[in-house]
Write a structure and sequence with these properties.
Elements: H1 2-6, H2 23-32, H3 34-50, H4 54-74, H5 82-99, H6 105-124, H7 131-186
Length: 189
């Protein structure tokens, strides 16, 4: 996770920023933006903390609602507070992981789905209206799934290898991400 964050640039979710033509651009966009890396990895960590069916359902909810948000953005339907929603997602997911929330799976799915809409919307609004736009969306979705899987692997690996210390480290990572999210939202970084 540290390598991904260190190699990423700051907030890249802004509508109209970056190239949106083709699968490769879609795939590398989430990996190249610290806001995306932090959000997507935290979704995986949250799912790992919840365990059981959440391992699949929570990330699937994110990707599904992100696709819906993308379709709404692509259609040009206005949505308020998109950038703020993206920034707040980092804070919300980091806080949930830091506090070790043990919420019911449907509530976790609703939480990640709410914020996933903003992520999808931002990118749907900037996609070109051709096959390259569809390829961009597919690349973005696949990279999102891989970042979720990274968070899952990190969370499950820490829990199995380091025991109680692993859970403490995961929660510490969540706290650091929540603070970083606050810094992104307020413009400190």
């Amino acid at each position: 996770m540290a390598m991904l964050v260190a190699s990423s640039s700051t907030a890249s979710a802004h509508v109209g920023v970056g190239d949106t033509s083709g699968f490769a651009h879609g795939f590398w966009h989430p990996i190249g933006g610290v806001d995306h890396v932090l959000t997507m990895v935290m979704v995986g960590l949250l799912a790992a903390q919840l365990g059981g069916r959440a391992l699949c359902l929570v990330p699937a909810a994110f990707v599904s609602v992100m696709a819906i948000g993308g379709a709404v953005g692509f259609a040009g339907i206005p949505a308020p507070f998109v950038e703020l929603g993206i920034g707040l997602s980092i804070i919300a997911f980091g806080t949930a992981v830091a506090l070790g929330f043990k919420i019911m799976i449907p509530a976790a799915m609703a939480l990640v789905g709410f914020f996933a809409f903003f992520h999808g919307y931002a990118h749907g609004a900037e996609m070109p209206e051709n096959v390259a736009g569809l390829a961009y969306g597919a690349g973005f979705a696949i990279a999102t799934v891989l970042l979720h899987a990274s968070g899952l692997a990190l969370g499950l690996g820490m829990a199995s290898k380091a025991g109680p210390r692993g859970e403490t480290l995961v929660r510490l990572a969540g706290a650091i991400v929540a603070v970083a999210g606050g810094a992104l939202v307020t413009g400190v970084i």
